[in-house]
Amino acid sequence: MSSSTQITAIETLLVDVPTIRPHRLSVATMMHQTLVLVRLQTSDEWVGWGEATTIGGLAYGEESPESIKTNIDTYFAPLLIGQDPRRVAACMARVKDNIQGNRFAKCAIETALYDNQAKRLGVPLSELFGGRVRDSLPIAWTLASGDTVKDIAEAERVLELRRHNIFKLKIGLRTVKDDVAHVAAIKRAIGERGSVRVDANQAWSVTEALEGCRMLADAGIDMVEQPIAAHDKLGLRRLTQANIVPIMADESLHGPVDAFAVASTQAADIFAVKINQSGGLRGAAQVAAIAQSAGIALYGGTMLEGAVGTMASAQLFATFDELSWGTELFGPLLLTEEILREPLAYRDFALEIPRKPGLGIDIDEDKLARLRRDR
Ligand code: MUC
Ligand code: MG
């Protein structure tokens, strides 16, 4: 390997893929997902892939697919072309010294660098984060068709397939009472065959959340995710300290600094760790470390990324010894198009994590060439 190994090209692709059904969150109804994929090429012929996919354009986060592409093309790529890709931390320090915010774009770039370096070293990406404690991860499924009967049928189908027995229900578009009735009906249908949790995506006030949590706990719901506004960490603390049902922080965690603020005030019982929300894999590992040092449990979250972001998350989560709430890395299953030559293996309520170098996936570049927005 020459001492002049360099990053030679960084390309960002937008790939619009319809979802298998409408996915209704309180902030957006998704009919498609826009995968934001980064392809990083180096002079020693290794390619690294990263993903910066978000949800519902600008409905969920402050970066849109289009802004991510523009910012990577205009600002990130010129900083990195010519740099040594084997020095991942140095490359990311250069990015962070010159670019504020842009957590999703940073995550995609960092993932592509780690994938590239792990392939060069011939090891799975997990080895760059200390090595694995597991080779598969439990995978939750989100029921979000917006229709109780359809959601129950969907839960029955995936239980039968032995694909999922953890269910996250999206709520926050109806009144609290109507949401609870919807959730309770699904919990009654599933019974002890699965865990049922809810995610309000910030829709409730603290008062509504206190009322909702009580009713949901009575209905047998295991956990409530981000019931109130992301910025309201005191409100989140009130809900957690009320001790009605475990409270999970999701949108409140924009990386390690937020994680410290939430953890140091014991404002959540569980953290949804997300690589994109955390600004990358290293940031997500720090979020997890902060949670653990505060006695907060871990859950492996998703931004509904496709195979690249899903496997990057899986490679990191496989290194967490504490992962008591499982993960929700089901993003590729929500999409109608496969972008891998060999699909990810979801079976026995888990996702298998390949041991091939890097992310461990084989991207079908011909397929991407046909699907990309600017084809
Ligand atoms: C979120 O807020 O958790 C994760 C699963 C899902 O259905 O939506 C995402 C975002
Ligand atoms: Mg959430």
Describe the structure concisely.
By secondary structure, this protein is an alpha/beta fold.
Describe the model.
- This protein is an alpha/beta fold.
- The protein has 2 domains: 124 residues, 2-Layer Sandwich (Enolase-like, domain 1), CATH 3.30.390.10; 225 residues, TIM Barrel, CATH 3.20.20.
- It contains 11 helices and 13 strands.
- Strands 5-6-7-8-9-10-11 form a 7-stranded parallel β-sheet. A 3-stranded antiparallel β-sheet has the order 1-2-3.
- β9, α8 and β10 form a beta-alpha-beta unit.
- The chain starts with 6 loop residues before the first strand and ends with a helix.
- 53% of the residues are buried.
- Bound molecules: [(2S)-5-oxo-2,5-dihydrofuran-2-yl]acetic acid and magnesium ion.
- The site of magnesium ion (MG) has 6 residues, from loops.
Tally of helical segments: 11
Sheet-strand content, in percent, reads 15-25%
Question: What do we call the CATH topology of the largest domain?
Answer: TIM Barrel
Named at the architecture level, the CATH assignment of the largest domain is Alpha-Beta Barrel
CATH first level of the largest domain: Alpha Beta
Strand order of the largest sheet: 5-6-7-8-9-10-11
Residue stretches low in confidence (pLDDT < 50, at least 5 long) are none
Gross morphology is: globular
The pLDDT mean sits at 98
Distance N to C terminus: 35 Å
Q: What's the total number of strands? A: 13
Structural class: alpha/beta
Bound ligands? [(2S)-5-oxo-2,5-dihydrofuran-2-yl]acetic acid, magnesium ion
Please give the largest β-sheet.
7 strands, parallel
> In which range does the helix fraction lie?
25-40%
